[in-house]
C-alpha cells in the first residue's frame, strides 16, 4: 500500500491542475474574507462566518474537480493501463487515490479557512469572539472539502470523463439540492452537500455514506470494466 500511495502522490503533485485548483479555492476565500472584512454594518453578524456563505461551496467544487482528475485524466489520456500494471489491484488503486485526495482536500480546506481569516483581518475586520462559532465554520469547510474530493474520485472512476463528472457534481450541488429543498421540501440539513456545508450531522452522515458506496462502486467498476 505504501508503494501505491507514493505512486499516486507523485501523479497528483505532478499535475499542474492540482495546485491551480487549490490556489483558486484559496483565492476565492481570501477575496470573500476581504469583502466581509471591509464591511462595517454587519450588525449581529460576524465577517468570518459570513464569508463562507457561497464560496465554501465553490471551493469544494474545485476540490471535487481535483478528485475527478484522479481518474478522469487517466481514462482520457489512456494511462490507466500503466496504472493497472504498476499497482495491480483495483482496491489498492482506489484506496490510494482516495487517501491522497482526502489529504489534498484537507489541505485545501485548511488553506481556505486560513485565507478567509487573513482576508477578514486584511480588510480591518475581526475574527469571532466566540471560538465555537469559528470552530463550527472551519469544521464545516474541512468536512465539505474532504468529502467533496472523495466524491470527485468516485465520480471520475464511474463516469470516466473529467468534464462529465465535474458537471454532474456541480449539477447536484448547485441545482438539484436547491430544487429538492425548494420544491420537495427536503430539509436542507438532510441534504448531503448543503447539510455538510452547515455542519449538520444528518447531511454529513448522508454525504459520507454516499461517498463510501460510490467508492465501492468505482472499485467494482474498475475491476469489471477496466480489467
Automatic annotation (TrEMBL):
Per the UniProt entry, the signal peptide is none
- Membrane-crossing ranges are 20-38, 50-73, 94-117, 137-159, 166-186, 198-223
Query: Which controlled-vocabulary keywords does the entry list?
Result: Membrane, Transmembrane, Transmembrane helix
Q: Which domain of life is it from?
A: Bacteria
Q: What is this protein called?
A: ABC transporter permease
Name its species: Amycolatopsis dongchuanensis
